[in-house]
Amino acid sequence: MLKGLIGKKIGMTQIFDEQGVAHAVTLIEAGPCYVTQIRTPGKAGYSAVQLGFGEVSTKRLTGGKLGHLKAKNLPPLRFLREFWAKNPEVNVGDRVTVEVFSVGERVDVTGTSKGKGFAGVIKRHHFNRQPKTHGASDRTRAPGASSSNTTPGRVYKGTRRSGHMGSERVTVQGLRVMIVDPERNLIAVRGAVPGPKGGIVLIKEARKQ
């Protein structure tokens, strides 16, 4: 059975359990999603299900995406994402809601982290600050040496440097489902998920149960 949804992060709040313990949770508006395509090993070389989420005006979609959805008699959907599924047990046009998950289950949530612009190595890579004395008063937040002169005589690729921080695909694993509300298409998971409010996230069954 397919256990995956596309959702929109609403924000964080807290709930109390039966013992009165407060838990920080993230609310996600998940689904309803529509099955827009099924990938099979015979045709695509792998097994997956493509889901669509977020009904919009037809003016907001490209001609290719609109034709892809119209051919299957589906509404105009803004976001299309694939979920790996060996035996999905769904058909094109099926509607997938938050009811595929249950309270207490573990899920993995994938999103795009907040962009923080250009950042130095102390903020971006947690480098230590250099000494403020012995002639290094203007080098306190500098990265220091990158390599050596003769060997290797160059800077290796992937060396940690200043640069664009954030705006990366991030997956948080093993979050516990705390609330499932089919009437409002809401799901709450304990802890934080990547991205800003309104960001698109993918919710999948946890790989590490």
Explain what the structure shows.
The protein has 209 residues and is mainly β. It is 6% helix and 40% strand. The chain has 2 helices and 12 strands. The longest helix has 8 residues, at 63-70. The protein is globular and about 70 Å long. The model has no long low-confidence stretch (mean pLDDT 93).
Key attributes of the depicted protein:
single chain, 209 residues, mainly beta, six-stranded antiparallel β-barrel, 40% strand
- Supply the CATH class of the domain at 4-100 and 175-191: Alpha Beta
Report the order of strands and helices. Answer: EEEEHEEEEHEEEE
Please outline the major beta sheet: 6 strands, antiparallel, barrel
Parts with pLDDT < 50 across at least 5 consecutive residues: none
Range of strand content: 35-45%
Summarize this entry quickly.
This protein is mainly beta. The chain has helices at residues 63-70, 121-125, and strands at 4-16, 22-30, 33-39, 48-55, 77-84, 95-96, 106-112, 117-119, 163-165, 169-181, 186-190, 200-205.
Furnish the topology, listing elements before pairings.
Elements: E1 4-16, E2 22-30, E3 33-39, E4 48-55, H1 63-70, E5 77-84, E6 95-96, E7 106-112, E8 117-119, H2 121-125, E9 163-165, E10 169-181, E11 186-190, E12 200-205
Antiparallel strand pairs: 1-2, 1-12, 2-11, 3-4, 3-6, 4-5, 7-10, 7-12, 8-9, 10-11
